[in-house]
Design goal:
Keywords: Nucleotidyltransferase, Transferase. This protein has helices spanning about 5-20, 110-120, 155-165, 190-200, 255-260, 265-270; strands at about 30, 40-45, 70-75, 80, 90-95, 125-130, 140-145, 175-180, 215-220, 225-230, 235, 235-240, 245-250. Strand 3 (about 70-75) and strand 4 form a beta hairpin. The model has no long low-confidence stretch (mean pLDDT about 95). The strands form three sheets. Strands 3-4-5-7-6-9-10-8 form an eight-stranded antiparallel sheet, sandwiched between helices. Strands 1-2-13 form a three-stranded mixed sheet, with no helix packed on it. It has a single domain, classed as 2-Layer Sandwich (HIT family, subunit A). The radius of gyration is 18 Å and the shape is globular. By secondary structure, it is α+β, with helices and mostly antiparallel strands.
């Protein structure tokens, strides 16, 4: 049983950060759109936050990071922060203290920081490798949505587990899905990451200075998923890793009628690389 100390600490920091005005939670509501199951479709009710707007270069919010959002220092080189624009309570970020590019390779020290948090608190982890895969900031950060033991990490988790049982790929885009072998220790993360990168022709850290294509990562205690991307937007929807977990967000630019006609699976197909 995990101690969930990080999660509890995140709740305490959340209350203080909210009082100080350091948090800007997204105000959303679930839309009961027919034919979307098992996807969860939310509509953004508040104004579109900065990280969802298109625009030019922006200041790095992590150098320095906003101290009221700090949950814990992860030795030797990372910080656990609250997301300033959380999609749920205790939406967490693991960031590098010094500059590391989001579009670069995830390094051994990053996986060690993830494992340090993962031993204490479980949930849905995700990573957007750059702007074309939905990253809102260029400074390296992995994200965690904490979950209770036994709680599904995301709407599509049952389908991922079903695929692992059958061994048959279900979708026409370029992705790799593997079973986790060390969910508490995290010793499997780097190997899965590199194996998926090779299979999806993202490149090799020993040969390529950075990944050759944009991608998303998603993982929980049971599975590890990598999706190769070609674009970030489709039909006015900004799609990051959470789209491939089964979460979609309707903003002022989203074409809801298109989504109702074509469905979420076609949206994902349109922003992912085709399966070779």
């Amino acid at each position: 049983m995990r101690a969930e100390r990080c999660w509890q600490r995140a709740r305490e920091v959340t209350e203080r950060a909210r009082r100080q005005g350091a948090l800007v939670p997204l105000d959303t509501c679930i839309l009961p759109v027919p034919g979307m199951e098992p996807f969860v479709v939310r509509e953004l009710l508040s104004s579109t936050p900065r990280h969802l707007r298109q625009g030019g270069p922006r200041p790095n919010p992590f150098l320095p990071w906003d101290r009221p959002l700090q949950v814990e220092l992860l030795e030797p080189a990372h910080v656990l922060l609250l997301n300033k624009y959380p999609v749920q309570e205790a939406h967490l970020l693991v960031i590098t203290r010094d500059w590391r590019p989001q579009a670069g390779w995830i390094e051994a020290s990053d996986w060690q920081a993830v494992a340090q948090v993962g031993r204490d608190t479980g949930g849905l982890w995700f990573f957007n490798s750059g702007a074309r895969s939905g990253a809102s900031q260029p400074h390296r950060h992995l994200q965690l949505l904490p979950r209770r033991p036994g709680e599904p990490s995301c709407p599509l988790a049952p389908l991922f587990l079903e695929q692992l049982e059958t061994g048959k790929p279900a979708w026409s885009w370029a992705y790799r899905l593997s079973r986790r072998s060390d969910p508490l220790g995290g010793s499997d993360l780097a190997d899965l990451y590199h194996a998926h990168a090779r299979d999806l022709e993202l490149g090799d850290p020993g040969r390529d200075s950075e990944p050759l294509h944009p991608y998303n990562l998603l993982f929980d205690d049971d599975w590890f998923l990598t999706v190769r991307r070609v674009r970030e937007h489709g039909a006015g929807f900004s799609v990051n890793a959470l789209g491939f977990a089964g979460f979609l967000l309707i903003t002022e630019g989203s074409d809801r009628s298109w989504l109702e006609r074509h469905g979420p699976w076609v949206l994902l197909k349109n922003v992912a690389a085709p399966r070779s």
